[in-house]
């Protein structure tokens, strides 16, 4: 029936939207190309206070906080380990919700448990044709359906995006590729990033025994796709940092290469098709806002769908969300430029510009979206 609502993708955005709609009594169908819940347990996610605020709006913040490790303090260091500046995150977010680092699988599990409805696993959307009054969807299984609204929550390589506009992902301003891993904690007490000429390494405690690691080059031209890059880029870093990288390379935990692509769309929707999350604004992980913005989108879009007129939902969502997303994108570019400066200059500027940029980035995000 044409008033049905189809959500495409059971990732962070899709599951959060299903939860938000269910809380409002709005029925939906969710379709996910994977045959079963994602096997993503090996990865971590840094969820700043605004992500936890969105989870609170979904009634899920306490459960996610209970599974993760609070991010109370950040330290930005040079490649030799010298402290450039630190941020008291606990104090920064004190008036709202704290920051946390969790296993990605834990976040997805909490979101899934909060969703009771029609989830179709193991079928992919092949194409969407949006019209004024409905949208026609073709599935990989051969099924065809007509819906009153199709929500593309299908990530950075979105199929649904084709029905909205022609934007394609592009490499982030800072780097083309990265490595993510979870390994035994080599003695890291808080969110710690070390930056050198070769790259940046971030380690965050993700549970009582392990750290989530993220390693990338800070210059887009560098080919950081091979394990040999990971082995050499951090060779001169402090022993704690090296120990984590070595453990990842030696098979001491999960290790995943990941391209770092961005999407910047002029349009968020067209007719009866709308995009949320990475599908419309995948952003380099400089400020850890990918999952956060996806969660916020879900909360805001569910509110927009309260009424019965779903025409122009994409424009409505962009009106409500565009400024906040553009802010994150522009602060991502600013930090990417700082990270890409020659080492000596960066190390001189960082103690002054770093704390200011942190406050300028996250300050506006302390305003709740709902
Ligand atoms: C290296 C790296 C590190 C990151 N670190 C952080 C971090 O610390 N904090 C943070 O907040 N964010 C981080 N992010 C970003 C974050 O992971 C994403 O922004 C977030 O997962 C976006 O959620 P989403 O639901 O939009 O997309 P996804 O989580 O990608 O979900 C999309 C879903 O759609 C499904 N799908 C795709 N195509 C189809 C189709 N045709 N039919 C049906 N289903 C389909 C997929 O299988 C998937 O389940 C990081 C990203 C990268 C690359």
Number of helices: 11
The CATH architecture of the domain at 5-72 and 96-169 and 262-340 comes to: 3-Layer(bba) Sandwich
> Which segments are poorly predicted (pLDDT under 50) over 5 or more consecutive residues?
none
Note the beta-strand portion. 25-35%
Range of helix content = 25-40%
Global structural class: alpha+beta
Task: Give the overall shape.
Answer: globular
What hetero molecules are bound to the protein chains? Answer: flavin-adenine dinucleotide
CATH superfamily of the domain at 5-72 and 96-169 and 262-340: FAD/NAD(P)-binding domain
CATH class of the domain at 5-72 and 96-169 and 262-340: Alpha Beta
Largest sheet: 7 strands, mixed
What attributes does this structure have?
binds flavin-adenine dinucleotide; FAD/NAD(P)-binding domain; 370 residues; 6-stranded mixed β-sheet; globular; 7-stranded mixed β-sheet; alpha+beta
Give the helices and strands, then pairings.
Blueprint lengths: L4 E4 L3 H12 L5 E4 L11 E4 L1 H9 L3 H7 L1 E3 L1 E6 L4 E6 H4 L6 E5 H10 L4 E4 L3 E6 L4 E5 L4 E4 L1 E4 L17 E2 L5 E8 L6 E5 L4 E6 L4 E7 L10 H7 L5 H11 L4 E6 L1 E2 L6 E2 L2 E3 L2 H4 L8 H15 L8 H27 L3 H20 L8
Parallel strand pairs: 1-2, 1-12, 2-8, 5-15, 12-21
Antiparallel strand pairs: 3-7, 4-7, 5-6, 9-10, 10-11, 13-19, 14-17, 14-18, 15-16, 16-17, 20-21
The protein binds flavin-adenine dinucleotide (FAD).
The site of flavin-adenine dinucleotide (FAD) has 37 residues, from helix 1, strand 2, strand 3, strand 14 and helix 8.
């Amino acid at each position: 029936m044409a008033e049905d609502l189809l959500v495409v993708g059971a990732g962070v955005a899709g599951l959060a939207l299903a939860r938000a709609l269910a809380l409002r009594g709005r029925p939906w169908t969710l379709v996910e190309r994977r045959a079963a819940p994602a096997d993503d347990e090996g990865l971590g996610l840094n969820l700043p206070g605004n992500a936890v605020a969105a989870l609170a709006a979904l009634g899920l913040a306490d459960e996610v906080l209970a599974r993760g490790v609070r991010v109370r303090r950040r330290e930005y260091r040079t490649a030799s380990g010298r402290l450039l500046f630190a941020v008291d995150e606990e104090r920064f977010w004190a008036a709202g919700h704290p920051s946390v680092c969790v296993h990605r699988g834990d976040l997805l599990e909490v979101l899934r448990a909060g969703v009771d409805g029609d989830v179709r696993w193991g079928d992919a959307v092949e194409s969407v044709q949006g019209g004024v009054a409905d949208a026609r969807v073709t599935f990989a299984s051969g099924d065809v359906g007509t819906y009153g609204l199709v929500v593309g929550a299908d990530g950075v390589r979105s199929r649904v995006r084709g029905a909205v506009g022609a934007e394609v992902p592009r490499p982030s301003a800072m780097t083309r590729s990265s490595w993510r891993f979870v390994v035994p904690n080599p003695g890291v007490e808080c969110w710690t990033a070390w930056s050198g000429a070769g790259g940046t390494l971030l380690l965050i405690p993700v549970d009582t025994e392990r750290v989530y690691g993220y390693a990338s080059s800070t210059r887009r031209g560098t080919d950081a796709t091979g394990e040999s890059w990971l082995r050499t880029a951090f060779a001169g870093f402090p022993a704690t940092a090296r120990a984590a990288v070595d453990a990842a390379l030696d098979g001491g935990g999960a290790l995943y290469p990941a391209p770092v692509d961005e999407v910047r769309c002029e349009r968020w929707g067209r007719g009866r098709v709308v995009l949320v999350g990475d599908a419309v604004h995948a952003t380099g992980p400089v400020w850890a806002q990918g999952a956060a913005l996806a969660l916020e989108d879900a909360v805001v879009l569910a509110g927009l769908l309260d009424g019965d007129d779903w025409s122009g939902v994409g424009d409505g969502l962009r009106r409500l969300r565009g400024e906040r997303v553009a802010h994150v994108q522009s602060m991502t570019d600013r930090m990417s430029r700082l990270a890409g400066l020659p080492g000596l200059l960066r190390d001189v500027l960082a103690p002054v510009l770093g704390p200011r940029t942190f406050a300028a980035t996250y300050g506006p995000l302390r305003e709740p979206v709902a």
